[in-house]
Amino acid sequence: MEKQETFQIVEKCVRNKFEYLIQKGYTLSCVDYKYDIRTSRPEGEKRNEDLLIIYKNESIDRLVEILYMFENAYFEPYNFISIRIGKNDDSLYLDEYLLKIEKKRLGINNPEESLKLKKEVINKKFLLDYYEGESMEEKVNKFLDFVIGLFKADLKGVIEGKKWIHIPFDWYKIK
What is the 3-state secondary structure (H, E, C) of the chain? Predict the structure, then answer.
């Protein structure tokens, strides 16, 4: 499937599923194509292009950012969606939130075990190929159902602006 066609499917599914955010006072503030600054190349050379969709609710200082990456930095198929909830001076990434929950549930404190959990379990939940479906649209919708489920339950207070969850960045061994 071509990149542009996939971008259109992801955008359509997000607009449909994130009607939940519209009901919570968010507005669709951005649908754009963004070039990954981490893979910048000299002028004229190919760079990665990602789909960026942002919903904002300025009255409660929240935004929800969806970044769909069709390919990785090496231009290999990726189909990864990153979800970030932001407020004035902080960000909550869904993958980091799930990692925190799973580490607590499993009693993991070791940095190596934490990194292994992130790579082998958490990151896979943000790859669209993790979800079963006959079509790309089915996979995207299943992923978004998972996300909306988190928004309606675990993260309801965050989405509604009633609370905030700060998760410090885990530097693992690089700090």
Answer: CCHHHHHHHHHHHHHHHCHHHHHCCCEEEEEEEEECHHHCCCCCCCCCEEEEEEEEEHHHCEEEEEEEEEECCCCCEEEEEEEEEEECCEEEEHHHHHHHHHHHHHCCCCHHHHHHHHHHHHHHHHEHHHCCCCCHHHHHHHHHHHHHHHHHCCCHHHHCCCCCCCCCCCCCCCC
Q: Which distant-in-sequence residues (6+ apart) come within 8 Å of 13 by Cβ?
A: 137, 140, 141, 144
Q: How far apart are CA 35 and CA 48, in angstroms?
A: 6
Q: What predicted TM-score, i.e. pTM, was given to this entire model?
A: 0.88
Q: Hunting for tokens 């990194």 — which residue is that?
A: 115
- Per-residue pLDDT in tens (0 to 9) along the chain, 175 residues: 798 999 999 999 999 999 999 999 999 999 998 765 545 555 555 556 899 999 999 999 999 999 999 988 777 889 999 999 999 889 999 999 999 999 999 999 888 999 999 999 999 999 999 999 999 999 999 999 999 999 999 999 999 999 999 988 665 555 4
Which has the closest alpha carbon to 81: 119, 22, 130? Answer: 130
How far apart are alpha carbons 18 and 152 in whole angstroms? Answer: 11
Length of the chain in terms of residues written: 175
